[in-house]
Amino acid sequence: MKILIASSECDPFAKVGGLGDVIPSLAVALKKLGHDVRIILPKYGAIDSIPWCSVAGGPMIVNMGYGVEFALLLQAEHKNIPVYFVEFNKYFARGGIYGEFGESYSDNWKRFAFFCRAVIDACPFLGWAPDVIHSHDWPTGLISPLLSLWNRPAILKNTKSIFTIHNMAHHGYAPRELLRFVGLYDHYWHPLAMEACGAVNVIKGALQFAHRIVAVSKTYAEEIKTPAYGCGLDGVLRYRARDLAGICNGIDGEIWNPATDKFLPWKFSAKSIGGKEICKRELQSAIGLAPAERMPVFGVVSRFFEQKGLDVLCNALPDVLGKMAVQFAVLGSGDANLEWKFRELASRFEGKMAVKIGFDNALAHLIVAGSDFFVMPSRYEPCGLSQLYAMAYGTLPIVRATGGLCDTVENYDEVTGSGTGFVFNDLTHGALYDTIGWACATYYDRRRHVRIMQRRAMGKDFSWNKSAKDYEREYELAMQLPLQ
Ligand code: ADP
Ligand code: GLC
Questions:
Q1: Which end of the chain, N or C, is surrounded by fewer C-beta atoms within 10 Å?
Q2: 283 and 239 both lie in a single domain
């Protein structure tokens, strides 16, 4: 199959969260299955330094609703996958991906509408007819409606669209003028198409027009059909339920593998786990925790957003740090209030709690490797990659039972010693405090169980092998659909 993956993120070029990790590793896994896979993303300002971009042709015409624009299509290769970049400085030559200094760019709807239209026009420009275009989250959500246009480029007349939901909370609201801006007709302004609450809702358009829809875990695919998790679009998802599947993300074992990880002072594996202690010492010194061999370290690496439930962790931490012999290593950024609270806790509990505000890939690897436990008290979590990385490094996740966390972490049973982590249900300060306490007691009193769980977690197969086959099946299902 010929598969074009359109995304706003793709590591190592542009990454804000898990989407950036998923795109290249999914592409590589699909390529291993024998498909012709290509990736397309905007050429952001920060990608400027890549020396090996070559122009794929002269200027490319982008057929906007108001007239034509000219963009450059650049080409590079990453792990043998062709990666195309749409260069259009007015929208993309900026410091950030979605925004800067804690603020989203106010013209994001125009930026990503332009990108979606450019993805459509890149196909005739390249003379390449993908069987499917696979788009991800609202920034590429307009591709499905654009592919439903009767006057789409002829080369795309057989092309089907797949839309993966990584996060239902971001809808991409835009004023009605978006439709004319991008070349969609007025009849898309309808509650059964893309209108919602007097605005254009881009993700709704993707959900209405994609041939197949995938959510990034089975539980999340069920959750978003309910009002509690559907962010107002649960009705649309119930309507499309027959075309909606849940496929859990995998991890890239070349990047996230404790036996080969270039960011670790000492490599380790399930068979020879001793190096994990060295990583722990290095972490304590790197982030500013007191050197303490026999104290459990709890790690957090996260975007600081409401989704992640870290406000509840902040409320629980004074009690946790005041009463338990534990250490916390926190890395992340986002919500200014949370950043301030974590800093305040770090100065109040010096030596026991340390925080680094910012995005730091090397430190993220060290926290995942050097911690004993990894805390993710998410309000909702479509899939979550961090708990998968943690398990691969023998770091036991402490998670709330939601979305992909539910599907990937097995709760500890202290009678049998089974499990790969600690799971709780209620997102309350008390429940989180108790679960951290439970993990802490297990660390001190049942070391053998901790070791067995670590090895079990490290032995789990979180590779893309199965999930890539599930995606392949989705593409096949889409391709069997009749032409519109
Ligand atoms: P989400 O995509 O919702 O943020 P995931 O668990 O799917 O959650 O993916 C998070 C990814 O982002 C992981 O690769 C994690 O290591 C990375 N990450 C998050 N915050 C930071 C940070 N401050 N520094 C480095 N990496 C981070
Ligand atoms: C989103 C979700 C996260 C998921 C990631 C990759 O950012 O919040 O749960 O793992 O996408 O699919």
A1: C
A2: no
Query: Are 136 and 279 members of one domain?
Result: no
Which protein residue's CA is at the shortest distance from atom 11 of ligand 2?
166
**What's the domain count of the chain?**
2
Nearest ligand to the CA of 467 is 2
Q: Is the minimum distance from the CB of 17 to ligand 1 under 6 angstroms?
A: yes
How far, in Å, CA of 165 to CA of 277, rounded? Answer: 38
Average pLDDT for the chain: 96
**pLDDT tier for residue 101 given thresholds of 50, 70 and 90:** confident
* CATH code for the domain in which residue 13 is found: 3.40.50.2000
pTM, two decimal places: 0.96
